């Protein structure tokens, strides 16, 4: 997070919605409001990645765009893991892969054969989160001079406590989904018992220090709680490199950003986001203003896929999506003023939203991409899929 960006937003605790982001000062269109790295992330095996998981570096989530010759495969662990460099592989082995691979061997077989890659993805994600916690404890025991062990692309300022402090929607999760989560919780419980616990013990650290929040139930209950927290707070990383620009965005990795979760949803958001790859790796998430934002306004993003959240996407579809994936009934300003045939009673708001969509959603030659400022604050927005550019100009005054 840059300090300049910090100044634009603050977290306010709302009595019903919990923690939310608000603008501390007027924010201009295109301005970066927050930049954040994942606490933890893994390449996806689910969806289109079933056959393409070798395109993402396991160690730093870098997209391997132009593999030269044979990909750099894991030498010791899963042969289906690839890395951007041997250095990245060595670090990943030391921090994570030497623990996860012997235990989860089956989950690292060719993903196309897996019954449900969806569940495998979050099991891998959360087992890594548990290993990050292991290193937090080991490093704090060793003192401040200890090198912090985690991926180069992971946020060094977040901790396992920030993951444990997230909200979960366990009580409103559909029974079928909950039944599947329970099976996964038993697997994670075993990982804690058989891998994390002995490793801590061998270093003289009591396992009772593992959780940062009070333990009211069993280890299994805590694992299930963690899955439910992850499920409503996880972000997908998307590009258009496999299915192309005319296909729905393609999720190539999933990650938990514990500082990004305080953006609530609106079907007419004032903040957009995109991912940037840097020298540290992939997954640097940048949030930027889609229009001028007034001091005191809540900052809102859309949880509904962008390509379908344009003016033509009916309210009923959006709400069904949000209910299914995020377990809430959307009552945002746009939903309140729109009926299910997309007729909006608030003409000024509808017009404003159409104008934002024209800038944000590409649609050129049926491109499914969205645009983001070329550089922070730039009024030139570039499509992340096709590279097409538009000038957004300033928002009309008096919004
Ligand atoms: Zn890498
Ligand atoms: Zn809505
Ligand atoms: Zn485009």
Structure characterization notes:
There is one protein chain. The protein is α+β, with helices and mostly antiparallel strands. The chain folds into two domains: 3-37 and 257-391, SET domain (Beta-clip-like); 40-233, no CATH class. The protein has helices at residues 3-6, 86-104, 117-142, 160-164, 175-202, 219-233, 315-326, 333-337, 347-360, and strands at residues 9-14, 18-23, 32-36, 40-43, 72-73, 82-83, 234-239, 250-256, 264-265, 271-278, 281-289, 300-301, 371-373, 380-383, 389-391. The strands form six sheets. Strands 3-11-10 form a three-stranded antiparallel β-sheet, with no helix packed on it. Strands 4-8-7 form a three-stranded antiparallel β-sheet. A three-stranded antiparallel β-sheet has the order 13-14-15, with no helix packed on it. Helix 3 packs parallel to helix 5 (175-202) and helix 5 (175-202) crosses helix 6. The protein is globular and about 65 Å long. Bound molecules: zinc ion (3 copies).
Lay out the secondary structure:
Elements: H1 3-6, E1 9-14, E2 18-23, E3 32-36, E4 40-43, E5 72-73, E6 82-83, H2 86-104, H3 117-142, H4 160-164, H5 175-202, H6 219-233, E7 234-239, E8 250-256, E9 264-265, E10 271-278, E11 281-289, E12 300-301, H7 315-326, H8 333-337, H9 347-360, E13 371-373, E14 380-383, E15 389-391
Parallel strand pairs: 9-12
Antiparallel strand pairs: 1-2, 3-11, 4-8, 5-6, 7-8, 10-11, 13-14, 14-15
Helix pairs in contact: 2-3, 3-5, 5-6
């Amino acid at each position: 997070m840059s300090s300049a960006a910090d100044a634009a937003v603050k977290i306010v605790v709302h009595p019903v919605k919990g923690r939310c982001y608000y603008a501390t000062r007027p924010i201009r269109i295109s301005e970066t409001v927050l930049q954040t790295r994942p606490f933890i992330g893994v390449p996806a095996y689910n969806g289109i990645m079933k056959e393409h998981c070798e395109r993402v570096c396991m160690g730093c989530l870098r997209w391997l765009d132009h593999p030269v010759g044979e990909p750099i495969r894991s030498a010791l662990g899963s042969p289906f893991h690839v890395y951007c460099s041997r250095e990245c592989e060595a670090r990943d082995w030391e921090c994570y892969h030497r623990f996860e691979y012997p235990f989860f061997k089956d989950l690292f077989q060719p993903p196309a054969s897996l019954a449900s890659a969806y569940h495998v993805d979050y099991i891998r994600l959360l087992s890594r989160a548990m290993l990050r916690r292991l290193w937090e404890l080991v490093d704090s025991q060793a003192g401040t001079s200890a090198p912090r062990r985690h991926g180069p692309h992971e946020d060094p300022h977040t901790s396992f406590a920030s993951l444990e402090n997230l909200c979960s929607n366990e009580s409103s999760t559909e029974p079928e989904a909950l039944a599947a989560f329970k099976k996964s919780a038993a697997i994670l419980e075993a990982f804690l018992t058989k891998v994390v616990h002995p490793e801590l013990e061998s270093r003289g650290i009591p396992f009772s220090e593992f959780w940062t929040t009070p333990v009211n139930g069993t280890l299994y209950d805590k694992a299930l709680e963690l899955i439910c927290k992850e499920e409503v707070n996880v972000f997908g990383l998307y590009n258009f490199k496999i299915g192309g620009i005319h296909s729905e965005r393609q999720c190539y990795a999933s990650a938990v950003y514990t500082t990004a979760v305080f953006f609530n949803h609106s079907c007419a958001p004032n903040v957009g986001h995109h991912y940037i790859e840097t020298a540290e790796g992939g997954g640097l998430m940048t949030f930027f203003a889609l229009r001028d934002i007034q001091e005191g306004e809540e900052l809102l993003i859309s949880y509904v896929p962008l390509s379908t959240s344009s003016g033509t996407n009916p309210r009923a579809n959006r709400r069904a999506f949000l209910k299914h994936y995020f377990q809430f009934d959307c009552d945002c300003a746009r939903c309140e003023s729109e009926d299910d045939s997309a007729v909006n009673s608030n003409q000024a708001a509808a017009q404003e939203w159409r104008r934002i969509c024209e800038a944000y959603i590409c649609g050129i030659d049926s491109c499914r991409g969205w645009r983001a400022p070329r550089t922070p604050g730039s009024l030139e927005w570039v499509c992340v899929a096709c590279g097409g550019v538009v000038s957004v100009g300033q928002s009309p005054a008096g919004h």
